Write the structure tokens for this entry.
Amino acid sequence: MIVNSSDWPDLQLLEAAPILAWRSGADGLCDWFNSSWLAYTGRTLAQELGNGWTEGVHPEDFGCCLQIYLEAFGRRAPFEMEYRILRACGTYGWIVDCGVPIFNKDHHFLGYVGYCFDITARRENEEKIDIFCHDLERSNAELEQFAYAASHDLREPLRMVVSYSTLLKKNIAGHLDEDSKEFFGYIERSAKRMDEMIRDLLDYSRVERHGNNIISTKLVEAVDYALQNLSHRIKEQNAEIKIDFDPALKVMGDAHQLARLFQNLIGNALKYCAAETPPRIRLTAEAAKDGMITLAVEDNGIGIPAEFSERIFQLFQRLHTREVYDGTGVGLSICRKIVERHGGKIWVSPAPGGGSIFRFTLPVPPD
Ligand code: ADP
């Protein structure tokens, strides 16, 4: 700030202002504080003058403050710093302190005028959010670790159950009555089912642990890969798949995981198709907004009642028995995990003519 005379600007306005204000001379020592400052710290002007005010600065913030102040002072530059200062009530409050260098019309440096705002409430909220995020990250990591360890370690005893029941069945094959044969059938089917569930759980825990880099990726390539893996079912069910987006469309993604995402969604559209009606599946993209694009997989299948639209994304949650539709209830949980790893969201809504529309957002590459 340049003032017209060799004198300091008039501080009368700042004296009456409801913000904390101070002034320091060219020697760096403070020679004025307004009454809001004195009321805030509960100290006298005499106590604050010179370097007296630094006695109230929190010891943990003092070093950083001093560094910013001295560095800005050396360059005669404006500065802004946040620190805790002891309040009249005896507890520390957070303030943001902005210093403006003052020069007279001959560009002669006179010192600084500073003004400060109390930001205690904002800092406390930020600290709470930090703690919350940290706890959330830790519990997520623990959950993933648990899912991985549990699924990995459970497969071994399961293999033993399967091997010994197969051996047992072989040993007593000639002596089995119809009931016993049925019981062995239950054991085999349950073991197979458990193995499928464990495998899917392992895949779920691998989304974070084994993800590749998120890079600019052609969406159509991920879709093609998924369609190749589903080609047999598509042909068998006489399904029609329509890709209604620009083949040049790129998103920021892990190509392998995007293919898995499409494979799960298109696979479900094929599985949960309406009886007697060949599946009609349409893939669309909306215009990108705020760096994210919304993609959709629409089907003409059996649809999903609105009250289950959240539940189906949870682990092992299914709306049908295995006798009606086979599955483990992990596919959509994997989809959600993949989308969230990319910073997006996934949700389902009813399609206008029956069926469902799964929508999800993905980041687009910067221009
Ligand atoms: P799974 O298919 O192995 O059961 P998912 O997690 O993929 O597991 O799906 C969870 C449940 O959501 C399914 O059991 C099914 O009831 C329902 N669902 C998923 N996709 C569709 C769809 N396209 N149409 C109707 N219901 C669906």
About this structure: The chain has a mean pLDDT of 92. Residues 120-171 form the longest helix (52 residues). Residues 151 and 349 are 32 Å apart (CA to CA).
